[in-house]
Amino acid sequence: MTAPIFGFNAARSSIVEDVVHRITTQTRDPLLVLNEAAYMETRRLHSSHGPELAEWRYLAGHLGRMSDGELRDKLRVYAERYAWDVAGNFDGRVYKFASKAMAPLLGALMSPRATLRHLGQSFDLTALDGRILVQGPREHIRKLTEIGTVIYTPTHLSNLDSVVFGFAIERAGLPPAVYGAGKNLFTNPVLSYFMHNLGAYRVDRRLRHSLYKDVLKTYSTVMLEKGYHSLFFPGGTRSRSGGVERKLKLGLAGTGIEAFVRTTVKGRTQPVFFVPATINYLLTLEAETLIDDFLQEEGKARYIIEDDESTRVSRVAAFMNKLLGLDAACVIRFSRPLDCFGNYVDDEGRSHDSRGRIVDAATYVTGRHGKPAMDAVRDAEYTRELGERIVDSFKRDTVVMGTHIVAACAFERLRRAVGKADLFAVLRHRDDVAVSRAELAEDVDVMLARVSVLEDQGEIAVAPNLRGKRGDAIVDEALRAFAGYHTQEVLAPRGSELVLRDTRLLFYYQNRLAAHGLAFDAIAPKGMAPARAPGVRPAPVAPPAE
Predict the structure, then answer these.
(1) Dihedral (C-alpha) 469, 470, 475, 478: value to the nearest 10 degrees?
(2) Does residue 71 have a pLDDT over 70?
(3) For FRET with 170, which of 103, 128, 436, 512 sits at 20 to 30 Å CA-CA?
(4) What does the buried/exposed string (b/e) look like for 81-115 if buried means 16 or more CB atoms within 10 Å of the residue's CB?
(5) What is the spatial distance between Cα 372 and Cα 387, in angstroms, rounded to a whole number?
(6) Where do the domains of the chain lie?
(7) Model pLDDT, residue 490
């Protein structure tokens, strides 16, 4: 069965037309919408003094004198302009080429030395299988892509995520998915060529008015109704803290429910399935920049930025060392698929409620008169509940890596040595605390035992390369990863001890375990009490009796 995206170019005009028609006919107050757009665009462009600014100023000055028909016509003009700017493109030949080129690209990123040594074999996708692991119910998801429309909703850590997840889809034998990409990325001629021809639609994040947002959401809805599989990052942006997302932005996810309702109302139900997934890195490409952003936002004046020029210069050389010395690992783990209402679905696409009973998803959208009906308030609540289930999936399918465990144990040692509860006071103790390498390895053994118990309970996953390893070996591997990647040492060997040097990065990597109560939790959403940090050497929890 050929995926709909391979016929996208032929259908593009009709898709844009559908988007424009909905915006034009379903906007209740075109005067309000156009006035907001004119106001916000005039503010955004106030320093440009170009023709675009003049156009918006002219519109703002004439809106009050327009008839309803003229307002609708003007609304159509702007909706069509935005829809064509958003609309993507798909070239099957470019897709085939990109599928082959993905192997050496990711190989160079994930393990450049190995790629250079084996350049002849680097165009074989299977060569990456040992470095980028794909886990989860792949065959189940493949069957669902033939029954309805699939929306992938992975965690988001790095700008590499779209490329890495595309590799996961390819290796899982799943059809390609469309996804939104920032318009700024299309200025790069190489990236633009691939994204423009692989179904990516452009998102201009400078435009914040409701008209543009409505065009984006309507475009997504129409694509889903027509069976185009999609990829959303429900976290909205990369996780600055390094932690697993616990609060989502569900605007685009809501278009999945809307698409399902619209096709059901028309009597041709197009099932929509959500597939949460986690993208888990041993190391994160932008960890240093991301954690600095997070700490500056959270700490305000309490976070002191140490601006050292020598550090800046060294980053240039260190970046080259990264390219030549990185030997990282990545695990993409698909979760169990859900319907639009958070129910698990089986291989036939049938929904099962919390008691395992088969339910008809269409009954969730039945109105007062016993027929399917649109209801924005109801569907917003469904979207919120779906978001909670996606967050639950993220937590269960987080894959624990060696760097996460070592960082959590080291950061707890740091907190106990400093003896202060304030996060920012703890982070300022760079180079002040050293821990015995042997004792850290013992802590890792205990932590791994706790993680294994949680895995047996289905609450987390452990990276395959950690199974059967002792704490000293895990510490050694984490040290090699940290030393060969980041611009500053994270843990610096000094005889039989390790100096806790980059406390920011220890905090960043330990955050991956915070949601599970395995590490210090300073990133709980507002209104949620932070989990108590575990002791350095807590007693392992006994596994449940057989």
Answers:
(1) 10
(2) yes
(3) 512
(4) ebbeebbbebbbebbeebeeebbbbbbbbbbbebb
(5) 23
(6) 4-86, 89-132, 134-177+229-280+331-392, 285-324+398-546
(7) 95
- Among the residue ranges 47-51, 94-98, 421-425, the one predicted with the least confidence is 94-98
Distance of CA 266 to the CA centre of its chain: 33
pTM to 2 decimals? 0.85
pLDDT digits (tens, 9 = 90+) for 175-215: 988 887 776 666 656 556 666 666 677 888 899 999 999 99
Q: How far apart are CA 270 and CA 288, in angstroms?
A: 43
Q: How many CB atoms lie within 10 A of CB 541?
A: 12
Residue pointed to by tokens 């997302």:
245
Both structure tokens of 8? 């996208």
**DSSP state at residue 198:** B
Tell me the DSSP string of 108-132: HHH-HHHHHHTGGGTT-GGGGTTTE
- Proportion of the chain above pLDDT 90, given as a percent: 58
> How buried is residue 162: exposed, middle or buried, by Cβ count under 10 Å (0-12/13-18/19+)?
buried
Q: Bridge-partner residues for 432, per DSSP?
A: none
- Cα(430)–Cα(472) distance, integer angstroms: 23
How high is the pLDDT of residue 525? 56
120-152 residues labelled b (16+ CB within 10 A) or e (exposed) = eebeebebbeebbbbbbbbebbebbbeebbbbb
β-partners of residue 198 are 90
Look at 52-66, 73-87, 522-536 and tell me which has the smallest mean pLDDT: 522-536
The residues, any chain, with a CB within 8 Å of residue 70's CB and separated by 6 or more, are none
> Is the alpha carbon torsion for 223, 224, 228, 230 positive or negative?
positive
DSSP assignments along 130-185, one per residue = TTEEEES-HHHHHHHHHHSEEEEEE----TTHHHHHHHHHHHTTPPP-EEEEEGGG
> Residue 423: CB partners within 8 Å, gap ≥ 6?
299, 507, 520, 522
Give residue for tokens 């240093």. 288
Residue pLDDT, tens place only, 302-332: 655 444 322 233 433 333 333 333 344 689 9
CA distances from 255 to 196, 374, 383 (A): 23, 12, 9
Pairing label, strands 201-203, 178-182: parallel
Q: What is the pLDDT, as a whole number, of residue 540?
A: 35
Q: Sheet containing 272-281: give its strands across.
A: 132-135, 330-334, 272-281, 149-154, 230-231, 178-182, 201-203
